[in-house]
Request: fold
Amino acid sequence: MKLTSNSVRLFICCEKFSILSFNRFLIISQNTVSTVKSLNTLLNFTRLASVYTNHKRMRFVQFRSLKGGPQRLGVQLALEGDIIDISAVDSSIPNNLVQFIEGGPTLLEKAKRIVQEGKSTNQLSEVELLAPITQPDKVLCVGLNYKAHCDEHNKPYPVEPCIFNKFPSTIIGQNGKVKHPLNTECLDWEVELAVVIGKKCRNVQSSDALEYVFGYTIAQDISARDWHTPEKNNGQWLLAKSMDTFCPLGPAVVFKEAFGAPNDKNIKCSVNGSVKQNSNTNDLVHSVESLIQYISQLLTLLPGDVILTGTPSGVGFYCNPQQFLTPGDVIESEISRIGKLVNYVV
Reply:
């Protein structure tokens, strides 16, 4: 088949084709046919452009079929979209995201090819979404890292980040149940942007920090406020933050190129349909880059490690009157370009 200027109306802008190791712009208009000599060549360029586009849209999920069976690792290309079961297509791809990230560029390239081929697709309605990442080496958290949250605390902005942690065993996923402990009367919500580390790093500079990020997800830093006090655990925060089910994550880990810059994203939390927190990550005291730099000066970050970057103002403890979670409540946590994480208090 011969291409003519009258038969082609396409504009393809390919910023980078790493597979062929060249950079170029391919422009085909009604009046101009450049570079393309045949329909097969055009289709090949289109396929490569699609690979590049899909690479920038990947949302990683862990899931299980509603019919049963083992956990799987998949990729969505759109919010609420179908899931491509990458772990079913290639046996070298593990069924959990931490091991996938540990596999580095080799597994990532395999995933890109599988996504392009579109094999082993599952409808979202046919699966149960699990937490998108489980059993990381570390779950690190940052306190007082939104300016407005510091203001509602009536505290100065921290000169250095306030770092604490949760146990990885506290992680639950989309539609997961937050268990209300019997030994707290002050269960609180805290929506947060969570960073997933992509490469082992130590002593990283902030200018290079985002190179070590794999992606981003939504977190709820569920907190027992009455265990924050000096009378409980000598004022140490660990137990207040690490009771069972206190770290909902999800619904997906959005690949960093799909998410874009982390420091200008809308973030919101609602309880039973009532908006409690509504802010933007541009209110962070310490940016994602500076947090990675700071933490990596103190300890080695490993692939799959999760960093919760802090919560905006609007937590229940500082409402007037105070408001706390009770069994039956529905928590909806939202961040632009990631979606909505829904959890139920029981």
About this structure: The radius of gyration is 22 Å. Confidence is low (pLDDT under 50) at residues 1-37, 45-52. Helices lie at 39-55, 86-89, 97-102, 104-117, 147-153, 238-241, 256-259, 288-296.
